[in-house]
Amino acid sequence: MEKKTEKETRKQNKNSLQSYKERSSKGFTPRLLAILLAPLVIIAIVGGVIWYLNSSNSVGLSTDDHIDITPTQIQEIQNIGQWEFLSINDEELIDTVSRGFFSDSELVRIYYGTVRLGIDLRQAGPQWLHVEGDSIIATLPPITLLERNFIDEARTRSFFEKGTWTDGDREQLYKRAYRKMLKRCFTPENIKIAEENARQQFMQFLRSMGYKKIRVGFATDRK
Hints:
223 residues, alpha+beta, 3-stranded mixed beta sheet, 4 helices, 46% helix, rod-shaped
């Protein structure tokens, strides 16, 4: 009776062990794999997303050399009008003598003036300010007299006067002083100085507007 019971017990334990193995092979492995693989899957997904974002949204540095200037900006600059680049103070001593039968008449006058050289942007030609590639080109009008009546008549005075003189006589002296002052001040040398000042100042002006590559010339350069 005891042997049978022991045999049955061993058989029962064997069946229980086999049943446990079968249950383990059917239920334990998939759940365990799911638990173990879940973090790996998440890591793989996150890594893939990060890789995709980095590959499709790469960061780089690029430069845009394109420049432009609008007609409104050009008109605003042109509305500046006269722009002085050189001022020359001058004085001229002019005299005249009128021969008389008994005595001579003499008139000596001193004239003061300021000759101002510069440009008048209202005289600029078409396309005087435009863009070529990555540069802005300015072609300025020629250097000219900004004020034709440059003699200061309020400061004009007679240095010496003898005899009788008419307004016409004084007008002739004024014209002589005007021509002499113009010849002394409005010279090629002074025009060159004014042009160089114009180039420098206009380049600084355009730089202040944000332009970097600038070329400045004059309409007379084309001749």
